[in-house]
Amino acid sequence: MTAPRRYPRWQDALGATLAGIWPVALTLAVLRNPARYDPFALFSGLGRHSYATLAAKPTVDPGVYTTQYTLGIRAATLLVHGHVPWWNPFEALGAPLIGELESGGLFPLTPLLLVHDGSLVYHLVLLAIAGVATYFLLRELRCGPLVATVGGMLFATNGTFAWLANAASSPVCFLPIMMLGVERARRAAADGRGGGWRWLAVGAALALLAGFIEVAALGLILVALVAIQRAWTIGREHLAAYARKVLAGLACGMGIAAPMLVAFDSFLLNGYVAQHAGNTADHGLVPAYVSMIEAPYLFGRIGANAYPQIHQIWGAVGGYAGFALIALAVASLFFKRDRGLRVVLAVWVGVALADSVAAPGIKNLIALAPVTQHIVLYRYLPPTWELALVILAALAMRDLSTAPRATAVVAMATGVLVAALTLLYGMSLAHPSISASRTLAASSMRQSELIVIAVIAALLLAAIVPGRHRALAVGAVAVTEAAILFAIPLASWPTSNRVDVAVTHYLQHHVGSTRFFSLGVPTPNLGSEIGVRQLDVVDLPVPKPLVGIERSLDRYEHATAFTGDRRKVPRVPTVAELLVRHLRRFEALGVRYVVAPTTAYVKLPSGAARLVYHDDQFRIWRLDRAAPLVHAPGCGLRTVTQDTYVTSCHHETLLVRSVLSFPGWSASVNGRPVPILTRNRFQAVVVPRGHAVVALTYLPPYVPAATAMCVLALLALMLPYEEIAQWRRERRRRPTWAELDDADPGQGRPPIPVGTLPAWLGGPVPAEPPVPVGAAPSSLEPEGPSTSSLPAITGSVPVVTGEEPSTSSVPAVTGSVQAVAADDGPPTSAVAVETVERAPDDPPTIAVPKAGPEDAET
Fold this sequence. Notes:
By secondary structure, this protein is of the alpha+beta class. About 45% of the residues lie in helices and about 10% in strands. The protein is built from 30 helices and 21 strands. The strands form seven sheets. The chain has a five-stranded antiparallel β-sheet with strand order 12-13-19-15-16, with no helix packed on it. The protein has a four-stranded mixed β-sheet with strand order 4-8-10-9. A hairpin with a 6-residue loop joins strand 1 (about 85-90) and strand 2 (about 95). Helix 14 (about 325-330) packs across helix 19 and helix 15 (about 340-355) crosses helix 16 (about 360-365).
């Protein structure tokens, strides 16, 4: 089902191994101690380090902990215990978990978060997959093992992996797998073979399940454009087969991810998405980003520059390229091989970068597209144009190794010149930022300038080396620059990770079936990690009913970031003041504990709250008048599980629990389905008099149909189509009984015993009837045609017996044949033999007609 290998197996094994191991080895070498990579210690608020300081950060988004890690831990815990994580009861007032996407509830790699140093292991596996997948993609594009290895190393250390460690980086490693599927589908269609589309299906499914649909959707758009371009490279007679393979791969991948997509659609229809409602594509990054694409740390390390325009940009960027990649991408346009693919990738890079900095014409055009209006393009487009740049750079290295030295020098010099002009143009657009950074981040700016100068000199020198070493020299320059830029954020992880876990232990043992609310720290979603209900939430989207409840508690807080911590604004009450003002509302939501750092000024009424925990970092108050999460007036109530209760009521009543009423919930009383009512945005069920068992279940709408679609897609992925097609071709070639009769008339159809299959279907082969001694074979009977192409001698000719008949192709004499019995059995040839007597020692010869007088001269 795959084409023959064009290169030795050991080269592919070595190249893929190097491409996968390189990012892992580089990460561990920079960290030296794997325990340094600890998002929990840095972003949970329980560690000694604070994310709000101006010290250099290892990542641009704390979501690496607050959403991906916390919600991923909750989903993985349920998965390993055999539960599908549809609902998260520990986030705010309850929210979908799989439908939220960032948890990766159905992603096969999510359980890696549960192992020791799980966040680091999860990240390293993604890097290794990216390197190996890019290697085989470049091999499919006819790059040599060396060039493919360099390309895999470059993409495995790309700017998105270096800057974004949250859920947005999870689908990135599957982009080259999808493009690999397109290339193999194209080659299989051109060769007239089956298969080739499975890699596209696997890549699309994993990219969607990885937990960030924006990156996956943008990657699918790039894959679709490349697939259209690659269709022009095959003959028209193979175009239909190629289209079927590509469409089958995409359909199968989406079918596998159907349960997650259905859950997300349900959450999206009933959730609040803030700025993603339709005007997201109208914004862009500041012009300083143009120079940061090639010199990422020109204005300082992540979050370390106090200049407002630069400090704020770190919350919006999504990746970088590096100087060498830009120069090589421009140099690749000088070569003609795969020209169409180069042009498509180059146009994609140019349009994406122009959109990121809000170029007027392009930005307005892209903003009209229906899908892109809801995506922060400048943040989630970088993985796609980074892959495009890596492919262009690999094609450039491949062609530079075989091009004449003059051509190589011109191409590389032009690439370096274009990249340098782009960098200078970006610096001119950000003149105020440059001036401020020369004071605020002087050392980082000098280091960035030195890196750029060294890369320029190295690329120009690499262009003049002999052709057989040119690809290695250019690749070494690009990999070295990418490794340095990739290592800078890794070096910013704290060397000491002291964490105060005493407060988490207290909450786990005392909160129970109630909730807690924190004023900034511990950070939101910590409760999802440790299995304790927490009112704070940071997520997108959030359920629509939750928005109204949050605004009734604090109308100055953002609905998708209800953290209990915000900047002080004049004439605006603080969170602590609003907590005291709306204390009864917090208690009605089941909040029994309030957690605050010792640095925060919180003064709760002495009659309503009492201090129950205190250390050098945190204080915890207990609210004694907090309402229970579930109550049924006039009933005895016992909680069996989080969603199952046993009631004993004197009369019919209403069971109400402070969990949001959301589409997909169903209820049963004593095994009989009952409707779920809504009371003040909460769930309510009518319970009868006497004993009753009340069970509530959440399942997003249409999930059963989506699950059936997923099963069918998996079966379609695993079916051996090539073997089935081969079996059908063989079945069509099997002879029928009529064909057998025509081929051997007079013999008739041999009887088949009852319950026995024919021989060509695997049954027993019928034995031929014995030939009587002295009888001529059936082929010599007068009524049957002769099977020999040799003419026979006319007349009566006896057969010489006791000798082996000759197999010579010399024409024989025609005529009737008299069979003479011999001790060795009947003759096996239908060729007549002459009757000339010979001496006993004279070997027999083939019977040749005797020459007549007219043949004397001949």
